[in-house]
Design a protein that fits this description.
alpha/beta, Rossmann fold, five-stranded parallel sheet, 12 helices, 5 strands, about 40% helix
């Protein structure tokens, strides 16, 4: 998938000064989409709607930086096309935006780690194209989490530190330190459980048109009748103690 095309006056390489001015004056946004945190709705219902299609780029990289499911790969784009990106959003290594022209303000959303892990399990059960789908359909929730499939174990720590993309650390504490340091570089951190309120704050901060939720882009995975047992909760919490630390820090900052 090559992505959206440019308007005629951009394809001609004769970009007028007003477009350069817009690119310079408005902040570029990088939405670092952590799995199962409501990111599809944020990207499609809010961020992408605020800009022409040729001004946004949706990415979805695997751990080897290969684009998945036909997503864009801006590393293969021309410098001119890269420079036009106003919104970069999706699954990517933290700091990926530094490979593109201009300065990007980073934003992300976090969800309660236990609920996020459960959602990851049920999401994978119904998505056979994902490498972890077979395990999710074969194993119970406890077995799935204990076997470290999908992003069920310390997703935030692994993604924010780039361990999910091959970075190595001498200890969990070192990974957590790096994850917290990178999280602190984000200009905006929202909470999925307060999605509507955080979306409003995001719009005010970056002067975006208001957010309007779309059921089409809500990607609910956990069955409404699901009930977490004490044993399941205990195991998920033990396997996600780094994420629980990160999430509690964010809640403290939001409340401050």
């Amino acid at each position: 998938m090559t992505g959206a095309t440019f308007p005629a006056r951009v394809r001609s390489n004769k970009i007028t000064m007003p477009i350069f001015s817009i690119l310079r004056d408005r902040p570029k946004l990088c939405f670092f989409h952590l799995p199962r945190t409501g990111g599809t709705s944020l990207a499609k219902d809010l961020l992408f709607r605020n800009f022409p299609r040729w001004r946004w780029c949706h990415v979805n990289y695997d751990q080897h930086l290969r684009p998945l499911d036909g997503a864009h790969d801006p590393l293969r784009w021309s410098k001119l096309r890269q420079a036009a990106i106003q919104v970069l959003a999706g699954h990517m290594p933290f700091g990926f935006a530094a490979r593109l022209p201009g300065h990007f303000e980073h934003i992300t959303f976090l969800r309660a780690p236990v609920a996020r892990a459960v959602s990851d399990y049920y999401f994978l059960r119904r998505n056979p194209s994902n490498p972890a789908s077979a395990a999710a359909r074969r194993l119970s929730l406890i077995e799935f989490v204990e076997s470290d499939h999908g992003s069920s174990n310390n997703c935030y720590a692994r993604w924010l530190s780039n361990a999910a993309f091959g970075a190595h650390f001498s200890s969990d504490a070192a990974m957590l330190e790096t994850a917290l340091r990178n999280l602190a570089l984000c200009s905006f951190v929202g909470i999925t459980e307060q999605f509507g309120l955080c979306a409003q704050r995001l719009c005010r901060k970056f002067h975006l048109r208001p957010y309007h939720a779309s059921e089409r882009n809500r990607n609910r995975a956990t069955p409404p009748e699901f009930s977490l047992s004490p044993q399941e909760r205990d195991i998920i919490e033990r396997r996600n103690w780094l994420d629980l630390t990160i999430y509690s820090r964010v809640l403290e900052q939001v409340a401050a």
